[in-house]
Amino acid sequence: MSLNLKNLKAHLALLVAAAIWGLMAPVGKLAMDAGISNLSLAAMRMVGAAVCFWLVSPLGVKEQISKRDYLLIFFAALMSIVFNQGVFIFGLSLTTPVDASIITTFLPIITMILAALFLKEPITTTKALGVILGAIGAVMLILFSHGDAGTSGNIWGDLLVLVAQFSFACYLTIFKGLIARYHVITLMKWMFTYAAICFIPIAYNDLSITFNQDFPVEVWLQVGYVVLFGTFFAYILMVVGQKSLRPTIVSMYNYVQPIVGAGVSVFIGIGTFGWTKALASLLIFAGVYVVTQSKSREEIKA
Length: 302
Description:
Elements: H1 3-33, H2 38-56, H3 67-94, H4 97-103, H5 107-118, H6 125-146, H7 155-174, H8 176-181, H9 184-211, H10 217-244, H11 247-252, H12 256-267, H13 275-292, H14 297-301
Helix pairs in contact: 1-10, 1-12, 2-3, 2-9, 2-10, 3-7, 3-9, 5-7, 6-12, 6-13
């Protein structure tokens, strides 16, 4: 496979993953509005994904993991799943959805800085411009999609959401070498197993209440989408992108999610798509493109 074709496959994987996550937001909200708690949904994501990855693991590549890498995989699971999803949920419960959405736009900025520190990736003018363009577009889209929330977020909730973004940015940069060493199924089955073991004690009471309630079939279908598509398939696609692309580029696809959310709201008739949202979407895609055109450390050395 040529390098260009490999990169194209990685970009397509990240684009589809971002679209799945963008759709997961309204679907997951419907499930939570029906009575599924935040903690229960997060725990079901982790446990459900772990089960799915173990079920398909016989179809993957059989490979041996070193004892040292088992420990690294554990910390990668903490950063990318437990802290990212768990801390974000706690933060979201304390702040407003608009505040939380805006704070998530800091992910590429944090990732760019951490990549410079840990991977010695240069912060070029092109890369910084792309990240800023994408951030402006994402914030515009979030504000015009949600309007004035009417309330301000809680500072502790906002800080927790920011910690969740920092945690995921650490995962993208610190563990890039680990991700490159193993097959995606091997990595994900252990990462979600570790995450489930860590998170079940936290969510045990919520899970007990959830499974003792009688929810309609459509609610469980919504939970099924979050687990199967929003977690299992999306994380496979994300790792495919991680293996070939630089951390900052991977993080830039975070900006695609609000575009999908806005598109879904227009499709189901609860939102409109005017020139402001069109401009915001254009800024996001322009930002992603500009970042992909920035030079890596190897290219600058060459």
